[in-house]
Amino acid sequence: MTTFKVWARWRPLKSAESHNGEITRTSDGDHTLQRHGISISIAASTRNKVLSSRERSWKSGLSFDGVIEPDEKNNVAYNRLVAPIISDVLQGKCCNFFAYGHSGSGKTHTMIGYDFENGDEFGLCLAAANRLATALGEINGEITVASKFGIGLQVYEMRNNSAFDLLNNQNECFVREGADRRVHIRGETEILEDGKVRVRPITTRACWSFEEVQRQLREALKQRETATSTIHDQSSRTHAIIEMEIITSDLLRARDSVVERQSELVPVGKYATDVYIEEQLLAVVQTEDGKYVPNPDYDVTRQQRVHDAETKKAEFETRVKEAEEYESEVFASIAQLHQCIGGRLVFVDLAGAEFLSGPATSRSMLKQTPQEKQQGRQINTDLLALKEVIRARSNTSQSRIPYRSSPLTMVLRHHFEASADSQSSIIVTVSPEADQYAATMNTLKYADLIGLANNRGG
I want to staple 358 with a disulfide (CB 3.0 to 4.6 A). Which of 197, 278, 286, 438 is the partner? Predict the structure, then answer.
């Protein structure tokens, strides 16, 4: 069972918000406990206002692993959440990190950061990349091999039912579940010479230094879509997913070979299907009463066409299987040199949750288009599905995990399953501003439900 940590992070109160008052908050518990041991209490400010029934004081269960205070910088969050699991990644494990919260609460600042030069303000993903690149440099210095270890970077955003490749000009990709029950993210179909049909997987950029990761990530995130939310007009309205996997150039070449063999199979498989359908249609005739009966004039020797086409298809299917087996062999041979190969960090900067309840404020009345409202509904659906997946995975008696509830959880399925023997975390970011009391309370309730489920399942 995955160990799932739950953290809360309060952002500082902005000077422009001080006239509205500040939420009263306290944290109780022992953060040194092996399991969840911190409770958070909040109460709305009474300055210049009468509290509504929605603004009653609230207290969580012992469901949090820790609290990051407003005056603590990003490096503190990294040292507490991510630094302890880098050793797991260097053993080939997968660890996932999520930032959840309402718009404007500091998710993107925490997960990605806005300052790409100041190490203390690196977001979790950038700080992790820095440490990972340093560790891989040390490993490369110890092992004499032609193919050095590097970081394979993927950056994409989930919007509605599609993924958009931010390392490939926001190219729209499609989320599909294959016969192997694995979810694949595929780009547009390319028609190549000799009739080959290639469906490219999402882009992986090989980075051999931290500076390369930094540059690629900066360029990718410029492509991320923003729109009007109920809080402000430049809100991130997509879930940004940043994957960093430990790779070598040999492994990437083996994976490219699989894609190439698959592209060769597509036209051959299509031809075999076309021939089969054509011959089946010729082999029957329709009678006057509308029934289909065997065609007495059909030359059964034509079935050789079907046999030949199927034989060729089987030949190309064998090539795909051989390429997949070769990829596995390459992976295994690299793993004998060092167990870090395939280790993966996944950072998910979730779109801002939309809380439409409570009294209207000037910001919550921001004009949204029908499309933006629909986006908000889809975002909330994704976030609900994510919560239910995390809770279900914590319940040892629950055999069915509702991954299919949303495209987001379908995409994350492989990462959840790959992290079964490692630690993952969700950090909820919350605003101290009194006007955001209802949104803050709902955010903490979301985390409380996850934390309590993990506590019971642990």
Answer: 438
107 a known binding residue?
Answer: yes
- What's the pLDDT tens digit per position in 220-271? 998 887 654 445 445 567 999 999 999 999 999 999 999 889 888 888 998 9
| 227-253 CB burial, b ≥16 within 10 A, e <16 | bbbbbeeebbbbbbbbbbbbbbebbbe
Amino acid residing at 290:
G
101 is in an annotated binding site: yes
Q: How would you list the strands of the sheet with 58-59, edge to edge? A: 24-29, 38-43, 58-59
Give 138-198 as a DSSP string: HHHHHS--SS--EEEEEEEEEETTEEEETTTTTEEEEEEE-TTS-EEEEEEEEE-GGG-EE
Helix (H) or strand (E) holding 265: helix 249-282
According to the annotation, is 150 in a ligand binding site? Answer: no
Q: What is the pTM of this model?
A: 0.88
Place of tokens 């882009």: 203
Q: Is 119 annotated as a binding residue?
A: no
Q: Is 106 annotated as a binding residue?
A: yes
Number of H-type helices and E-type strands within the chain: 10, 19
Largest CA distance in the chain: 92
Torsion over CA of 63, 64, 70 and 74, rounded to 10 degrees? -150
Question: Alpha-carbon distance 329 to 176, whole Å?
Answer: 26
Sign of CA dihedral 81, 84, 86, 89: negative
What pLDDT digit, counting tens, does each position of 320-349 carry? 999 999 999 999 999 998 999 999 999 999
3-state secondary structure of 274: helix
pLDDT at 377: 84
* Contacts of range 13-19, beta carbons closer than 8 Å, 24 or more positions apart: 13/70, 13/432, 13/433, 14/433, 17/433, 17/435
Residue 273 assigned ligand-binding role: no
Helix ranges restricted to H, 61-123: 74-81, 86-89, 107-111
**CA pair distance 128, 84, nearest whole angstrom:** 11
